[in-house]
Amino acid sequence: MEKLAVRSKSTLAKIFGTILSILGALIVVLYKGPTVLSDSNPLQSPATHSPVSLSSQTNWILGGSLLVAEYLLVPVTYILQGILVTCFCFVVCAWGLRLKGPVYVSIFKPGSIVIAATLSVIFLGDALYLGTIVGAVILSLGFYAVIWGKAKEEELREEFGEG
């Protein structure tokens, strides 16, 4: 539960930051805008550019075999990656919490939006739209405003000896 002292800068920053974060998320979801960056993945190019020409029946057998291998191996990799990545993220977050506290750890959350958008352009060949960039910037500014407000409240609480 949050205490609302409407005249304090920290409360106003938290309210304003919350509104900005919601607005940024809505922009990311609802507004596409013009394409800023598009990177086509060479793995997604049509098969007509392939130097190897196989007969139709061989293509069906090869394609079916690859689909079977994918359906068997992908779940295993998801499970292994989930375990390793989850453990790694937990260790890093716990270390950051112990070292600097919760405000420090949460500051890096909006960075995940930038990383996800960048990796989707690089590895998946997705296009990066203006709406995604604008929404992510607004969402990040709102998030940082909320974090700044929380940090200021903690400083005031420590200054006045409240615990």
UniProtKB/TrEMBL annotation:
Annotated GO CC locations: membrane
Protein keywords: Membrane, Transmembrane, Transmembrane helix
Any one GO molecular function term: transmembrane transporter activity
Database matches in PANTHER family: WAT1-RELATED PROTEIN (PTHR31218)
Location of this chain's protein in the cell: Membrane
Membrane-crossing residue ranges in chain numbering: 12-31, 78-97, 104-123, 129-147
Protein's name according to its UniProt entry: WAT1-related protein
Lipid bilayer topology: Multi-pass membrane protein
InterPro entries: EmrE-like, WAT1-related
